[in-house]
From TrEMBL:
Residue ranges of every copy of the Histidine kinase domain listed in the record: 336-556
PROSITE patterns: HIS_KIN, PAS, RESPONSE_REGULATORY
SUPFAM superfamilies: ATPase domain of HSP90 chaperone/DNA topoisomerase II/histidine kinase, CheY-like, GAF domain-like, Homodimeric domain of signal transducing histidine kinase, PYP-like sensor domain (PAS domain)
Name recorded for this polypeptide: histidine kinase
GO BP annotations, alphabetical order: regulation of DNA-templated transcription
Chain positions with 4-aspartylphosphate modification: D625
PANTHER family, sorted: HYBRID SIGNAL TRANSDUCTION HISTIDINE KINASE C (PTHR43547:SF2), TWO-COMPONENT HISTIDINE KINASE (PTHR43547)
UniProt keywords, alphabetically: Kinase, Membrane, Phosphoprotein, Transferase, Two-component regulatory system
Stretches assigned to the PAS domain: 182-226
SMART domains registered for this protein in UniProt: GAF (SM00065), HATPase_c (SM00387), HisKA (SM00388), PAS (SM00091), REC (SM00448)
EC number: 2.7.13.3
Amino acid sequence: MRIAAKASMNPTADPITDPLRLRALRSLSLVDSPAEESFDRITRLAARLLKCPASVVTLIEEDRQFFKSCVGLPEPLATLRGSPLSHSFCKLTVRAGERFLIEDARVDPRVDSHPAIEEYGIISYAGFPIRTRSGEVLGTLCVVDIVPREWTEDELETLRELSASVESEIELIAAAERERDHARMFQTMIQASPLSVIVIDTDGRVELWNDASEVIFGWTSAEVLGYPLPIIPEHKLNECQRICDAVGDGSVFRCVDTYRAKGENANGEKRAVHVNVSAVSLHRYDGHSDRILLIIDDVSQSHADTLERERLFRELQKEKALLSEMDERKNRFLALLAHELRNPLTPIGNAVDLLRFAAKDPSQVNEISTVLESQVRQLVRLIDDLMDVSRITRGRIDLQRETVSIHDIVANSCRAVKSLCNEMGHELIRRTDPEQPLHVHGDYVRLTQVVTNLLNNACKYTPPSGRIEISCGQVDGQVEIAVKDNGVGIPPEHRKGIFEMFTQVDETLKDSRGGLGIGLTLVKQLVELHGGKVLLVDNDEASNGSEFRIQLPCLDAKPNEPKTVVEDDEPKQRFRVLVVDDVPAIAKMFTMLVGAMGHEVHSAPSAPEGIELARELRPDIVFSDICMPDMDGYELARQFRGLSELDSSMLIAMTGNGQPEDIRMAMEAGFDRHVTKPASIQRLREIFQELETRRFKV
């Protein structure tokens, strides 16, 4: 929950010049900073969702405004990334401390004769304040348009949510700055501390040796760094090794003992120091321990000093862990997002390129269309999942189960990696018996993702001109899919944790293409959600390559074969179709598709023009977008239903908004059907068939 803006000590003071606000703004070092993709992504999204030509993240200084991110601004604003406050609408939002809306600046007395109207052509404006966690207003997220706009509550709610995303990004920047401050504080503390601070690796070699260590033990850092710890007497080597092993397993060791120092005492004996030692393992981001931290204190220090040291150490560790967790959560989400979207995008891109060469080969065009249809369906499913970020970050991915053929999954996965295999010169061998029925009750998209991930791993971790084999069959009532390669393999010491998040065998994969280290984790989780398991087959030697096997519950009986639908090249009845959509690319491609299906098709770029054209053409069916400027699809439907000459026309809402509430609103406005973009050709055929049946009954 955001804290409300702090009240100024002087209620008449201008919030623009409020010292607390300006101090908060400058502490983040965002003004005049380079552009960042995280902010640009939000402004692009705001402009697209609200269908505005420009969107800006603005930071308001005392005498100017700076654009941290801007999309669609005219020159020279886009290059200068700022302007004087005299040309700013955003300063009005900062002064208001809440959302600020302008529907038509030309007639709004609040912005009478504002320079931005004449010089930049800004007519409408919507801005939300951007606050720090403590409540200071830094600037705004705003959208502007060059035409009058009546901002809907849905649009404003979208803009409010995006402004919250900007605040989250700023908070991440603040958190990163705090983490850097803590790192500098740690370094200063280590060097200035009267305690000896030593870090050793698992072989006992010294990695850190501070000034206090030199004072207590006598060796300089130049003498010990990279060498075994010199303070251990020979008779204590075995004991210290046992302590290191225990600490490496997560134990914390403390003792008071005598250790060796450099030089001799007055009696010619090796000099010794009596110290209090604390030892703890240092963990990497993946939880593994590869170093040990020693904190050594002279026993003459008071007990109170010791307790205070431990308290400070625990608090610093807790703060560091908290900051690391925040960063890890963000990175995990971004990694999952990229990983899940990349697989279907690859065959789509290849198919688009291939269409340029296959235009005269109907069979190849048909095959490419099948691939595109499958991958677009997969993308739509992935986007639906990504709408609920919290569900994905917690691993709560719902499966959409159906009876699926393992042969189809294997074939689709092989198509997905064909380009990578060709690029690497690999031989991809598929050993399957199409006559053997292999069916499971599962999620087609997720199981395809599982097999594709294994094939991708095999491609990446196999040297060029390698061999990759995939086979499937039935073993003891289970469907088994095996992926085998002759690549670099996995050393025995790394096999145990190979399915853990972010695991990579870096030292053996110098020639690989890297990766995010989440592919096998996703494979394991998705297979287990299907009631199956994934195994890494043990090989005596890593050089023999790797073999993964997936086992899934097999259906007891072969399902009924779906009826084959013969698709006529020409429709049984030719309909007059009207398409209303303000996005030219969508309207053009959709009209081409409907025309290719054999119907007479027309288009209109806006709702008012669509109504006029409908009255002239009296179409059999109208496909209309919902989110359009000036007049949305709901208003179009209401006016459409008020025209008696269009009573017989079928009205279809075709939109990217597919939530239950969106469907309900479309039906209440007067639409006959609701279709979520992109509409498949099969769905269009069903709609035309329904219209044909309706006309026949009449």
